[in-house]
Amino acid sequence: MNLSKKIVSVAAAAALVAGAGALAATPASAKSKAAIKGTTVLEVPLTTIGAAVQAGITIAPIAPSRAQATSEVVGVTFPVSGPLMDGVVNHRGGISMASANTGITLTATKPAIEYATSGGDTATLTIEINGVPDSSPFAALNGTRVPFLTITDFVIKGKWGKATKAGKAWKQTYTVEIAGKAGLVDNANIIGALNGFMGTTIFVAGLDFGDIASKYTITENCKTKKECSQR
Question: What's the pLDDT tens digit per position in 55-79?
Answer without folding.
Answer: 999 777 899 999 999 999 999 999 9
